[in-house]
Write a structure and sequence with these properties.
three-stranded mixed beta sheet, four-stranded antiparallel beta sheet, single chain, alpha+beta, 11 strands, 4 helices, 24% helix, Beta-lactamase
Length: 165
C-alpha cells in the first residue's frame, strides 16, 4: 500500500517497471489468478490416496506479502542484483540484513524481509514461503558468494473425512 501511495502505481505495475524489467526478469510477475501464464506450475495435494490439483489461491489478498510467480533463472538475477548493490542504496541494503531491534532492547533475527543468522560460521540470509501446493526457500551466503534457491511442489496429505458411526 505504501508503494502504491508513494508511486501512484499499482503494486504489480511498480514491480514490473522498477524491478523486473530493469533486471531482465522475464518470468517474474504478480500472481493474479485470471491471466494465462505459459509454463505456470500447478500445485498438488494428496487426497484420499489420490494426487489432485490443489486449489488455486488468489494473490490479491496477500499483496506484498508474496504473490509473485517466478523461476530459478529470474531468482538468480534477483540474487545477483542484491549481491552487486545495483538494486538498492547501501543504507537500504544494510537495513535489509540487520537484525530488528525491539523496543525493549532485544533483537529478532529478521531484517527487512530476510532471516539473519549463520550456519556453521557462515553468514546466512534467508527467506521462505509457501502457498497451496508450493514451497520456496532462498538461502544466501554473501561471504561465500553462494545462493541456494529451492522452488518445490509441496504435497499436503488430506485424510479421508471422519464419518460418524
Amino acid at each position: 500500500m505504501i508503494i502504491e501511495k508513494a508511486s501512484g502505481q499499482k503494486y504489480s505495475a511498480y514491480l514490473d517497471d522498477h524491478i523486473f524489467k530493469p533486471l531482465g526478469m522475464n518470468a517474474n510477475r504478480y500472481g493474479h489468478l485470471r491471466p494465462l501464464i505459459r509454463h505456470r506450475a500447478m500445485g498438488y495435494k494428496l487426497m484420499l490416496g489420490q494426487l489432485i490439483n490443489d486449489d488455486p489461491m488468489s494473490m490479491d489478498a496477500p499483496g506484498a506479502a508474496g504473490a509473485l510467480v517466478s523461476n530459478v533463472l529470474d531468482l538468480i538475477k534477483w540474487h545477483q542484483a542484491l549481491e552487486s548493490g545495483t538494486l538498492l542504496k547501501s543504507e537500504s541494503f544494510e537495513a535489509m540484513y540487520r537484525e530488528t531491534k525491539l523496543p525493549e532492547g532485544k533483537t529478532q533475527p529478521y531484517g527487512y524481509g530476510w532471516g539473519v543468522g549463520d550456519l556453521s560460521g557462515h553468514r546466512k540470509l534467508s527467506h521462505g514461503g509457501g502457498i497451496n501446493g508450493f514451497s520456496t526457500m532462498i538461502a544466501r551466503y554473501p561471504s561465500d558468494r553462494l545462493a541456494i534457491i529451492l522452488l518445490s511442489l509441496s504435497l499436503i496429505h488430506i485424510s479421508e473425512p471422519t464419518r460418524p458411526y
